[in-house]
Write a structure and sequence with these properties.
CATH topology: Lipocalin
Distance between the termini: 46 Å
Helix content: 10-25%
Order of helices and strands: HEEEEEEEEE
CATH class: Mainly Beta
Strand content: over 45%
Number of domains: 1
Length: 153
């Protein structure tokens, strides 16, 4: 009986490590900025050491150059089954109501008052799309059910 428990525990750990390897790299979600010839790109970069960076960028689509930043954060991540936990340790935000974005050096530190974020995640068969499925929220809350990111080259 103990041998069976160790076997299942070992298999579960192997699956989690394989899933962690599959999300390594940079993932992006792009959308047009209304009324502007710009793209807003939300990008996650997952590293093998369990750290991540998150950047909310403004990009010029004609040159693919980053023209500004809306926010940046970093922290650590952990995977258990199909659940991803993101724990921010630093956060910087654009805080100028008169502009759409800031230079990276002009982002301001922001305190993160919430705890770690937990989402369910899945990868498409080709492992080029990463989808976060968010837990349901309360009746009067403004929330989303899922976000899908494309693997960035």
């Amino acid at each position: 009986m103990v041998g069976v428990a160790i076997l299942f525990s070992s298999c579960s750990k192997d699956v989690e490590e394989a899933q962690a390897d599959l999300i390594l790299g940079t993932w992006e979600r792009n959308e047009s900025v209304e009324g502007e010839n710009l793209i807003q790109s939300l990008q996650y970069a997952f590293r093998p050491n369990g750290s991540f960076d998150l950047a909310n960028l403004i990009i010029d689509p004609s040159t693919s150059e980053i023209v500004g930043y809306r926010a940046m954060s970093s922290g650590t991540y952990d995977i258990h089954g199909n659940r991803l936990t993101l724990a921010e340790s630093e956060r910087y935000i654009h805080n100028d109501p008169d502009r759409l974005y800031s230079d990276r050096d002009d982002l301001e530190p922001s305190e993160f008052t919430g705890g770690p974020t937990q989402v369910a995640f899945s990868l498409d068969e080709a492992q080029n799309l990463l989808t976060f499925q968010f837990d349901p929220c309360g009746a009067n809350e403004n929330c989303i059910s899922s976000l899908t990111f494309s693997r960035s080259e």
